[in-house]
User: What shape does this take?
Amino acid sequence: MKNLIRTFTSIAIIIAFSFNAKSQNIKIDTSELSYAKELNSDQIRAIEEQQQLEKTYQVVRGERPPINIEEVKEEAFEKGRIAIKIQPYLAEKLAEKFIYPDKTGFVKTGVKNLDYLNEVLNVKAYNPLFINIYNTTEKTILNREKHKAWGFHLWFEIELDEKTDIKQVVKLFSELPEIAIAEPFYKKELLGISERDNNEITRDKWTPNDPQLGNQWHYNNTGQQGGTAGCDISLFSAWNIEKGHTSVIVSIQDGGIQIDHVDLAANMWSGIGYNFVNNSPTITVHNHGVHVAGTVAAVNNNNIGVAGVAGGSGSGDGIRLMSSQVFTTTGSGGFHLAPIHAADNGAAISQNSWGYTSANVFEQNVLDAIDYFNANGGGLVLNGGITIFAAGNSNATGNWYPGCYSGTFAIAATNNQDVKSWYSNYGAWIDISAPGGETNTVTQRGVLSSISTNSYAYYQGTSMACPHASGVAALIVSYAHRNGIMLDNIDIADILRNSTDNHYGVNAGFVGNLGTGRLNAFKALQETQSYISGVLNPKNITAVANSTSEINISWTKNDNANDVMLVWSADGTFGTPNEGSSYSIGNTIPGGGIVLYRGAATTFNHVGLAAATKYYYRVFSYNASNEYSSGRGTSTATWCDILTSLPVLENFNTSSTLPICWEIIDNQGNGQVWQIGTHTSGLSGTGGNYAFLNSDGYGSGSSQNSDLVTPIMDLSAYTNVRLEFKHYFREYTGSSGKLFYSINGGASWVQIQQWSVTTANPVSFSQVISAVEGQAAVRFKWNYTGSWGYYWDIDDIAITGDVSTGVANPNSFTATPANSTQINLAWNKNTDNNNVMIAVNTSNTFGTPSGNYSAGQPISGGGTVIYNSSGTSFNHSGLNPSTTYYYKAWSYNSETIYSGGVTAQANTLCGTISTLPFTEGFEAAGIPSCWTQEYVSTHNLNWSFGAGNGGSNPSTAFQGSRNAYIKINGTPRGQSTKLITPPLNLSSYTDVQLTFYYFNQFWSPDQDVLRVYYKNSASGSWVLLNTYNANVNSWTSVTINIPNGVLSNDFYIAFEGEANWGYGVCIDAVTINGVSSLVIAGDVNGDGFVNVGDIVWMVSHLNGSTPAGFIMANADVNLNGSVNIADLSALINLILNVIK
Assistant: This one.
C-alpha cells in the first residue's frame, strides 16, 4: 500500500464547476434554501461526540483529492442515484432510516433544505447506504458501534429519475450545510479480459495427472509458448517453505466463486461469503471470480486441474477463500460493504480485480470501507488488513482508482517474457508487477486457472496479475503465523515490494512505472524469515515536507520499544548495517545511506535541504547488542520554489518519472498522457530519456489531450529570454502539437507555434519569447491533441536569458562547423557598436563575466575566453572531431559592463580517428556519432540500440545500459546490414587488435550470423575477418588481430548482422587498440593535438599526479632523454609558435 500509516483529515470532496439551474430546466428558488452554517449547542455536541467516537476507534482515512466533476464524462456515472453523507447532528433524526414519499407524493425528512430539494428534484427514496451489512453475519452486527465511529450510519443512497442530471444534483446537495459529502456513484468494471472463444477447456480434455501445472508458466516458466525461462513468480521454490495455512482468509471481492468446484471446494471459508449485489447469502457463479479464486488458492496436489499460489499440499489445508460477491453476470454492487464484512469476519487480505471505468474518479464511501478493512482486517493472523488491487487494463498512466489510492497495493501485469502486458496501466503509484498474461495472439500465453462448471481457461488482465500477489501475501502471512509471529499489514507491503525481480531491462520505456519489479514468491518468503527472527522493524515511517528546505520524518517504535537509527540517501540506495557495529551521525552504512539520527526519539527534522528535491529515508530498530532490523523506508520531496535564475535545463535523464515541479495535465480525463522514457522509432540524436506522448501506443479508438508544463519561473530580472528544445512530431489523422507560454502562472495561455505535419527527426526549436521578458510568473507548456495519431517527443529543453544590465547583446550569433576541427562563429554588433567577448565550454554552463579578460582566461562559473575584440567573426580551430562545443557571446562597454549574453552551439564534423584506443559502448539511444550502416539485403533492416536484444536472451547489455543488436520477428529471413565504424587512421600503428563482446543465441532451429569485415579505403572492398554462426547464449569476448600490412589512414571495420529469426546478434564494448609507431612531441594526452590540454597534463605529471594514459614518449619535448621542467617550457613555446 502506498502508505497505510499516513494520517489524513477526512475531507469532503470538492466539487468545482459552474452551474446554471435554468439550463437544466429545474427551477431552484434559492430563497427557499438556508445556507447558514451557524451551529447551535446540540449540533456542536453531536459533532464532538462523533469526533470522540472516531478517536476511540482510531479512525484513519486516506487522502481524498478534489474531483472536478464538470470534467467527468456522463458515461462515468451510474444513472438515477447519488450518495450523500449527512452531518452527525442529523443522525438521531435520519440515520439508518428508509425514507419514502408520503401521501403528498414527496420524500419528507423533516429537514427544510433537504425536503425542498426532494420536492424540486422529485427524489424517490432515501436508502441507508450501509444498512445491508447487518444482513450478513452476527460478527458484523456486533461491530455496529465501530461502524458508527467510521460514520457509515450517516450515508444514504438517494434514488432519482434516471434522466436527472447527476452533476446538478451533486452540486445542489453538496452546497447544503446539512450535507458533509455528496457524490455520484461511478461505474466499475472487472479487469480481466475474458477467454477467447476457443480457450475454455473442460476437465475431460486435460490429462488428469496432477494436473495442468506445467501450463501455468506464471508459476514456473521454462520457456512455454515462446516465453523466457525464469520470468515467473518462483513458486516451486516458495512451496518448499510455505504452501498456505487454513487460518489465513482471503476475501475475493469479485464475481461469485463456484463453491463446489472440484478444485476449490476444499479451500473455501467455512462461512462461504455473501452476495452483496443481490443482498443474499446465495453466491451466484461468475467465471471471473472463479478464475481469480483459483489463482489464489486452487487446491494443490489433488490430481485435479490447476494449482493455486496458496492452495496447500493437497488435503484442503490451503488458505481459506471468502466469496465477497460484488459482480454478477447482470449487475454489480456492494463495493462499500464487502470490505467491512471481510474485516469483521477475519479476512487478512482483500483481493480486488476491479476498478472504475474512468480515471481520476472515486467514491468516498468505498475508500472509507477500504480504510476500515486496512484498520480492522487481519483476523487472528495479521495486524490490520492489506487491500490489493489490479492496476487496470487501459494501457494508460494517470490516476486509476482504487489502485492508485494510498490505502491499496497496486499490481501491474507482465507477459511470459516479463514485458509489460500490452493492456496494463502503469504509473509511479504501481507497487509491483505480476504475471497477467497475453491471450491476444496465443491463447496459452494467458494465465491458466479455474472457471465455472469444473472447467479451466486462459485469461489475461491485471485481474489475473492481482491474485498472484494476493496469493503470495497469503503465503507470507501463513509462514509468519505458522512460526508464531503476527506481522503488521505494512510488513506485507514492504516484503512484497522489497523482494521483486528487476524487470526493467525489458521495460526500458516504463522505468519506475511498473513498481519495484516483478513478484517473486520465493524471495518474499526469504524476506519474511528476517521478520520472524531478530530485531523487529519500527511499525512505520513517514516523511512530510515542511518547506522548501525541511522534511519531518517520524516513526513508531516496534513492540519492544527498541531505539532506532535513521539514515538518508539522495538516490534511494541503502545498504545494511553491520551487526554489532555502532554508527555515529554522518557515518555511511555499508552499501549506502548516511546516518541522520540514533536514539529513542520518534521524530526528526532534516533541515538545510535543497528545494524541489526528493530525499529517501530508512529507519532501523536496534537492540543493546547493536543488532539491526531489516529497516523500513519512505521518501518525499521538498516543496517547489519559484525558479529565479536561468538557464533552466531539462533532458529528462534523471529518472523515468516527471521531474519535480513539472506538471502533466490530462485534459481528456482518460490517463493517456505524457510519459518520460523512450519508445520504438522515437526521437533520435539526444541520448537517454525524453518526454513523449505516444498516441499510437494507446491503440485504435484512443484520444489524447494532454499538457506537459514547466515549473513557474520568475524572469523579472531577464531580457532576451530564449526557449530551445529538440523534438520529433509525427502526424497522423489530424493530430497536432502546440507550444504555449503563460505570464500568470498558467491561469491563461498564449500559443507560440503549432505543428500539424511530420517534422524531421530531430528538429531543433529556438526562439526568443519577448512577451515573457521581465515577467514574474512564466510557464511554458507543450500540448498534444490527437485520436490514434503517432507521437510527439520533446527533449533537451533550455530556457536562457540575459540579466538586464543596460548593455545590449550582440545580434544573430551563430556557430557553424567548417570541418572536423573548426567551428566558425559570426555575429552582428549591437547598436552601440560595443566590443564582443566569446567564451567556449563543453557544456552549456557559463559564469557571469566581471572585469577584463584575455584569450585563454577562465570565467568563474564556467567557460574559457577564446575571443575579445571589435570584430564580427572568429574561427575556432584545433578542435576534436564529432564533438559538441558551446559558446556564449557578450557585448561590453567602456566600463566593462557586460550584456546578459547570447549562446550558440555546434558539432564539429566527423573526422578520422587518429588516436587509439578507440572504444564504443553504444550507450546513446541511437546509432553512435559518425558510425554508419550499409544495407546488404534489400530490406533496409536497421541495427537497434538498447538493453540486450530489446526483449530477452539477452535482456541486458554486457556493460552499461545499452548495446547494439539486430534481429527480426518473422520473415523474410536472411536480412543483413553492416554497422560501420568511423574512419580510422591506423597508419602510425602496428599490432592493431579489435576486441568486442557478442551474444548470438539461436531460436531453434533458427540461427543468426555475425560477420566482421575491414576495408582500408572508403572506396575499397570489404574483406572478411571472421564469421560467427554458432549458438552463443552468454556474452562472449572476441579478439581479432588486424594484419599490419593492411593498415591505412582511411580504415574501417564493419559488423554485419544477418537476421534469420533467432534471438538476434548483439555486440557491445568494442575496443580497437594498437602500438603507436609515431612520436608526437608534446601530445602527452594522446588526443592527436598539441594544445593547452597537454600543458595541464604535463603540470600534473611534474607535480607527481600523472594522469592515466599519459604518453611518456611524447613528454620529452626537448629530446634530451628525460622529462622535467625544461620540457614544460619547450611545450609552452611549441604551442605559442603554433598560435603565431
